[in-house]
Design goal:
Length: 268
């Protein structure tokens, strides 16, 4: 059984809006007040998954797949997964209509087997939500409670959630990786989330502006985000990566922030 299809749309949010949404969600789902550090870990993980919420679609804060038992809303989108093929880890792209692709931009690996969209190829169905509050609450529930069938085993993400609530972004990422939450390289994923944790901790602590990383740390973070994101990169991040990989001078902060902010109003 597949849930209810909704049209894909970008739902970008500011860091402050995300912090507020997750604070309320943790209170609601878990029944306790998160520490600023614990809150910042959850926020940082979401920032990596969604390109700092510039590639946030339908309020899906964790980019969780809508499996065959998912009863809620879902949308479809082209994305990639890191898979093991012939003993090697490779990036494989999927399209809702074309299915598995030969490369990021196609063509279809099996052109004679197209899919109707909706429901789309099963790899391309993502959980969707009507608003930020419900999206944040479901993401917290997914990690903290894990109602997904698990053959009678305890919550598969319990250790990761505890690490998050302990304010330990490194342990959070490594436990998520061990539990199969993501397919990206664990070291790269963890390094990115640790940097994002440092960036957004001031908001969680006292509503202060995000911390500014050093230029080198920001460049590394952009490279790590590009490697870990399963969806198309936000326009600002794709531009930044082009500059970094070309070995040219990096964008200054004002130009980078302008490019990032401009993506909010861009069309999908």
């Amino acid at each position: 059984m597949i849930g209810t299809y909704v049209e894909r749309k970008k739902t970008p949010l500011s860091p402050n809006e995300v912090v507020d949404a997750f604070r309320v969600a943790i209170r609601r789902v878990c029944g306790y007040e998160p520490t600023p550090e614990g809150l910042a870990v959850v926020v940082a993980g979401s920032a990596l998954e969604t390109g700092r919420w510039r590639s946030l679609y339908c309020y899906g804060f964790g980019n969780v797949k809508a499996g065959s038992t998912w009863p809620g809303l879902y949308y479809t989108i082209r994305l990639n997964e890191v898979e093991t093929r012939s003993g090697k880890r490779v990036v494989v792209w999927y399209d809702p209509v074309l299915g598995e692709l030969v490369g990021k931009n196609g063509p279809a690996r099996y052109p004679n087997k197209p899919y109707a969209d909706p429901p789309g190829h099963y790899q391309c169905r993502m959980r969707a939500f009507p608003d930020a509050a419900s999206g944040a609450a479901e993401h917290v529930e997914f990690l903290a409670v894990d109602t997904t069938p698990n053959n009678g085993k305890p919550n598969r993400y319990a250790r990761a959630w505890q690490a998050a609530m302990d304010g330990d972004p490194e342990a959070f990422c490594r436990e998520l990786g061990a539990a199969g939450y993501y397919t990206a390289d664990v070291d790269t994923y963890a390094r990115a989330v640790v940097s994002l944790f440092r960036t957004y901790l001031p908001i969680a602590q006292a509503g202060e502006p995000p911390a500014r990383l050093s230029e080198a740390a920001e460049d590394q973070l952009c490279l790590d985000m590009a490697e870990c994101m399963r969806l198309e990169l936000p326009d600002w991040l794709a531009r930044k990566i082009e500059v970094l990989r070309a070995g040219s001078m990096t964008l200054d902060w004002g130009e980078l922030n302008s490019a990032r902010d401009a993506d909010v109003t861009g069309n999908d």
